[in-house]
Records
---
Amino acid sequence: MTHRQYFKLAIPLILSGLSVPLLGAVDTAVAGRLEQAAYIGGVAVGSLIFNNMYWLFGFLRVSTTGFTAQALGAKQDDQLAYACFRPMLIALVMGIILIIAQKPILLASMQLIGGSEAVLQQASIYFNIRIWGAPFALINYVITGWLLGMSKVKWTLVSQLLVNVLNMLLSIWFALVLQYGVAGIAVATLVSEIFGVIIGLLIMRYSGRLSLEHLQIGKLFQPGHLKRMLVVNRDLFLRTVCLLIMTSLFMAQGARMDETTLAGNAILLQLHYLLAYVFSGLANASSIIAGRAVGEGSHQGYRRAYSLSAVWGVMFAVLLALLLLSFPTGIISFFTANPEVQLVVREHMIWIALYSIAGVWGLQLEGIFSGVTQVWAIRNGIFISLLIYVPVQWLAVIYLGNHGLWLAFVTFHLMRTVCTSVYTRKVERLVCIK
């Protein structure tokens, strides 16, 4: 794997990652064209519920990529099929459970988020329609993971862009032209999620590598393979829970700040998410390379994943940090014209630049470890980081205010890098590459 090949693999993955938040963003943008402000709030709250809920099931994509890449490297066509259909069954079951449990999920979410009666009413309309797409949304995670594991990154990008374009057009048509309001926006997103599954299955079918001939129902539920997959998914789920706890603690503390600081923090978080999606694209590329190397039994290929991740991760981290610090005015003005909010963002921009440097290698290691399905190391690293984060946030905010909050944020990601790095040698021994 050359640097050029790695770059060609990573760029579509980065673009694909950046398209992830577009579904909620498109819905919110269309709602902004409706008459009542409650429509915007309702869609924003509804999108937040689904973003957080589906975030917990992100392990379906990550683990599927790892198992698929390993099967591809080992040239095991039967395992390619099982790497797809085992997690797809989990996605289907979990999606149905979410539909069954929709009322308590909605009630709990409303209690937690809060809002005016009008906003919550519109959020309920949005939720009650879009929840029926839960099985399709989760199956889409599996399809995306399988295509990534097969290195079909361009097709992954194409399918996601098609889904987002369809969602945008249908949202405009149902909500604005036919005047169905928030219900129209929700229906558009539901249809788009179903369309995503259909187009994904078609791409998989015509990839020529997903053969049902090797599929046997008995082997599909083979205890050894099924247990391994469930353990990997469990650890990735726990990793996401730790991230969600950290984010919730950060947001809860930030909510106690004044409105101007709160608005500035919201923009800073958006900048952080943009950087995180870029780094995740690189991590996905590393995951594919590492998983394939383990399948092939290539120690050189596995070590190559580390060197490529280090070079490109550091390069992107430094360049993005310099970009943030060199052109803050242009970047900030894109998000807000309020001079007071701009000042808050400018004063705290250094923390996002530091996040870029501190967090990049942790994300690259997560990509490599998930590619070889040794995700216990990711779970342990992020759990220790959370334990360190809690007292740091408490103390730093007392003495440094909002700067202390961002100091704790950067500390968490730095510890994520340090604590995950501790397991590098052990993971290499466990994958048994000679």
Note: The chain has a mean pLDDT of 86.
---
Amino acid sequence: MRTYNIFETNNVKFLVNKQIEFTTIQITETGLKKSILDATAPVRAYLKEKNVHDYESQLQGQEHKHVIDTYILTEATRFFTKTSLYRPVTKKGDPRLWVNKVRDVEFLKANDIFALIAHRNILFVVNLSTVDISKVCLSLIDTPLKDLILELSSEKNTVSEELLRLIKDRMTDWMPAEVLADTGIGRTVESTLGIEMNPSKNPDFKGIELKSHREASRVRNTLFTQTPEWNISRIKSSKAIVDEYGYIPYGYTHKSLHVTLAANRPNPQGLGLLVQPQLGLLEADEFSQIPSEDGTFRKINDVAAWRLIKLHERLLTKHHETFWIDAETKVESGREYFRVSEILHTKNPIPFQFDVLLEQGQITVDFLLCRDSGGDTYSFKINGKAKSLLFPESVTYNLRAI
């Protein structure tokens, strides 16, 4: 997609500031002529997250096409139509979409960018290239677009206020952790809020992600976990990585690989990260242990890889809005107790900054791999002090005085 112009940038900033979750798509000249648009990876991720449509489980062919009610929103009014979501039989079933009747209302032209907003299983479509969203919302005149933005923004504020109130009411006095383990605080916070343990990659509390940690462990915070894409990796499985680079820890009988990979230095196994923005890749590679004269380390071999756009999707999906919960802890009679002391409330991470922080070594990847037991994880972590660079919109709630 092309770069936003000033008008579009202002529209995007306004939606972000109002905490509106949306995705964008550009109308190509070919797509406009053929009434076909590619459902790009960010669009597919957004529709799946909003439980509107899952292209991954959709079969090819017109008989499997999914149609969803849609409103095209202009500055003054709205037009009802349908959006088709499908995978054609040809071209390997590349995901497609088309908003019907867009030409009938002279809604767009080639190279325009529009926003898709999913709400209550309905799609709302706004042309970011022509509709002045801030003017509409600041006007005294009520319109369908203004009503939608204000409703969604109000819902977002209500959820964060509800979550903050629950934490204040239930977790500012000492309470026992469910288990004495690294995950004990997080598990107890979630169960206290009525959140069941599950393998979902979506945010925890009504769209807000919860990240709990002890005050003493502020050095690095987990952003998300993401397995490498084996189809673009030299090594094709976690087991094979352990076979090649693992070691047998003291007291173990089989190989493991519990290491941290960073972009600015190789670890003792010679493993590190290499950001390749021109290729759209993050690589885990093997490097020489001795730096060159310029201080860099020579790459020896490929290990595994991720597409940066996939990592951006995970970041945006997982951390659209996050409560980073700090907890004071103490141990009495062999049992851990905690109380919430501070919450950092962040919104809308910047994907470009994710790449920069990887290159700077502020975001690292922990390999937690075991040859026999399974349950392997690849954990992306950020240095605590670097969060403000990734999440520019934040507020801190100090609960110590409560």
Note: The two ends are 48 Å apart (CA to CA).
